[in-house]
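DM from R.C. (forwarded with permission)

"hey, sorry to bug you on a friday — could you get me a structure for this? deadline for the figure draft is monday and I only need the backbone to look sensible"
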Amino acid sequence: METVPCKWKPVEEYGFAARDEKKRDGRYHGSMFWDVKGFGSKRWVVAGQLDLDAELKQRLDQGVPERQLVEACLQFLNQPPPREKFQRKTSRPLYGNLEYYRHRLKKDCIEVLVITDQKKNDRFWSEGTIVNS
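My reply, with the result:
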Protein backbone atom coordinates (compact mmCIF):
# COMPACT_ATOMS: atom_id res chain seq x y z
CA MET A 1 0.00 0.00 0.00
CA GLU A 2 1.18 3.54 -0.69
CA THR A 3 1.95 5.94 2.12
CA VAL A 4 -0.86 7.90 3.73
CA PRO A 5 -0.16 11.47 4.85
CA CYS A 6 -0.82 11.84 8.56
CA LYS A 7 0.44 13.69 11.60
CA TRP A 8 0.84 13.20 15.32
CA LYS A 9 -1.64 14.73 17.72
CA PRO A 10 0.45 16.79 20.21
CA VAL A 11 0.44 15.56 23.81
CA GLU A 12 1.42 17.25 27.06
CA GLU A 13 4.12 15.88 29.31
CA TYR A 14 1.69 15.00 32.10
CA GLY A 15 -1.85 14.44 30.91
CA PHE A 16 -3.36 14.84 34.38
CA ALA A 17 -1.55 18.04 35.43
CA ALA A 18 -2.26 21.65 34.60
CA ARG A 19 -2.12 22.57 30.95
CA ASP A 20 1.43 22.62 29.69
CA GLU A 21 2.33 25.07 26.99
CA LYS A 22 4.98 22.80 25.54
CA LYS A 23 3.72 19.77 23.62
CA ARG A 24 5.45 16.94 21.81
CA ASP A 25 4.38 14.15 19.49
CA GLY A 26 4.37 11.24 21.96
CA ARG A 27 6.12 9.73 24.97
CA TYR A 28 8.38 6.79 25.59
CA HIS A 29 6.42 4.02 27.28
CA GLY A 30 7.58 3.02 30.75
CA SER A 31 6.46 -0.62 30.61
CA MET A 32 8.65 -3.54 29.69
CA PHE A 33 7.83 -5.14 26.33
CA TRP A 34 9.64 -8.46 26.52
CA ASP A 35 8.04 -9.72 23.30
CA VAL A 36 9.89 -7.00 21.32
CA LYS A 37 13.21 -8.42 20.23
CA GLY A 38 16.06 -6.11 21.32
CA PHE A 39 13.83 -4.11 23.67
CA GLY A 40 15.77 -1.79 25.96
CA SER A 41 19.02 -2.07 24.03
CA LYS A 42 18.27 -1.34 20.38
CA ARG A 43 14.51 -0.77 20.27
CA TRP A 44 12.02 1.17 22.42
CA VAL A 45 8.25 1.60 22.48
CA VAL A 46 6.62 5.01 22.07
CA ALA A 47 2.97 5.80 22.81
CA GLY A 48 1.23 8.46 20.79
CA GLN A 49 -1.91 9.49 18.96
CA LEU A 50 -2.32 9.88 15.21
CA ASP A 51 -4.74 12.63 14.24
CA LEU A 52 -7.82 11.14 12.58
CA ASP A 53 -8.45 13.72 9.87
CA ALA A 54 -11.03 13.64 7.08
CA GLU A 55 -8.81 11.68 4.67
CA LEU A 56 -8.12 8.89 7.17
CA LYS A 57 -11.81 8.68 8.11
CA GLN A 58 -12.71 8.44 4.43
CA ARG A 59 -10.28 5.56 3.91
CA LEU A 60 -11.69 3.75 6.93
CA ASP A 61 -15.21 4.21 5.55
CA GLN A 62 -14.04 2.74 2.22
CA GLY A 63 -13.15 -0.46 4.04
CA VAL A 64 -9.37 -0.19 4.34
CA PRO A 65 -8.30 -2.32 7.34
CA GLU A 66 -7.24 -0.26 10.36
CA ARG A 67 -3.86 -1.93 10.76
CA GLN A 68 -3.02 -1.46 7.08
CA LEU A 69 -3.92 2.23 7.37
CA VAL A 70 -1.74 2.69 10.48
CA GLU A 71 1.21 0.95 8.80
CA ALA A 72 0.85 3.19 5.72
CA CYS A 73 0.80 6.21 8.03
CA LEU A 74 3.98 5.00 9.78
CA GLN A 75 5.58 4.55 6.37
CA PHE A 76 4.82 8.23 5.70
CA LEU A 77 6.31 9.27 9.05
CA ASN A 78 9.45 7.20 8.32
CA GLN A 79 10.27 9.32 5.27
CA PRO A 80 13.09 11.80 5.90
CA PRO A 81 12.33 15.48 5.37
CA PRO A 82 13.07 16.83 1.89
CA ARG A 83 16.67 17.78 1.22
CA GLU A 84 17.43 21.47 1.51
CA LYS A 85 19.40 23.33 -1.11
CA PHE A 86 23.16 22.86 -0.64
CA GLN A 87 22.65 20.41 2.21
CA ARG A 88 25.65 18.13 2.67
CA LYS A 89 24.36 15.47 5.05
CA THR A 90 21.55 13.20 3.97
CA SER A 91 18.40 13.67 6.02
CA ARG A 92 17.30 11.01 8.48
CA PRO A 93 13.72 10.31 9.56
CA LEU A 94 12.55 12.67 12.31
CA TYR A 95 11.34 9.89 14.60
CA GLY A 96 13.82 7.12 13.80
CA ASN A 97 12.57 4.01 12.06
CA LEU A 98 9.03 3.42 13.31
CA GLU A 99 7.48 -0.05 13.30
CA TYR A 100 3.91 -1.04 14.09
CA TYR A 101 3.26 -2.66 17.48
CA ARG A 102 -0.38 -2.03 18.46
CA HIS A 103 -3.22 0.41 17.84
CA ARG A 104 -6.68 1.33 19.11
CA LEU A 105 -9.23 3.39 17.22
CA LYS A 106 -10.83 6.27 19.14
CA LYS A 107 -13.41 8.85 18.08
CA ASP A 108 -10.97 11.59 17.05
CA CYS A 109 -7.61 9.79 16.92
CA ILE A 110 -5.83 6.47 16.61
CA GLU A 111 -3.85 5.56 19.73
CA VAL A 112 -0.69 3.73 18.70
CA LEU A 113 2.23 1.98 20.29
CA VAL A 114 5.14 2.03 17.88
CA ILE A 115 8.67 0.68 18.07
CA THR A 116 11.56 3.04 17.34
CA ASP A 117 15.30 2.57 17.14
CA GLN A 118 16.15 5.87 18.86
CA LYS A 119 16.67 5.82 22.62
CA LYS A 120 16.21 9.56 22.98
CA ASN A 121 14.35 11.81 20.57
CA ASP A 122 13.49 15.46 21.22
CA ARG A 123 10.08 15.01 19.61
CA PHE A 124 8.99 12.55 22.33
CA TRP A 125 8.72 13.08 26.08
CA SER A 126 11.15 11.19 28.36
CA GLU A 127 13.62 8.66 26.98
CA GLY A 128 13.82 4.92 26.49
CA THR A 129 14.87 2.76 29.41
CA ILE A 130 17.94 0.55 29.13
CA VAL A 131 17.37 -3.05 30.10
CA ASN A 132 20.29 -5.32 30.95
CA SER A 133 19.48 -8.84 29.91
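R.C.: lifesaver. The chain has a mean pLDDT of 91.
me: no worries. The first helix runs from residue 54 to 61.
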